[in-house]
Design goal:
mainly alpha; about 60 residues
Length: about 60
């Protein structure tokens, strides 16, 4: 009885691993197809900190 429990547990573990690998590969292919992250790059964002680090150097421009 004890060995049967190990065999069933191993089969369930293998099924889980197979579905997990399939899910990762499917998600990766889907992401490459839709190319969701291509529009997130900003060519003027050199420091990678986003828009909050871009302040005008002239004080008069800041108050507009």
């Amino acid at each position: 009885m004890n060995i049967i429990m190990y065999i069933v547990g191993f089969i369930l573990f293998l099924a889980y691993c197979c579905f997990m690998v399939w899910s990762i590969r499917y998600g990766n292919r889907k992401q490459e197809e839709t190319n969701n992250y291509a529009n997130l790059s900003d060519p003027t964002d050199m420091d990678g900190m986003g828009n909050f680090s871009r302040f005008p150097k002239d004080i008069n421009e800041r108050n507009k």
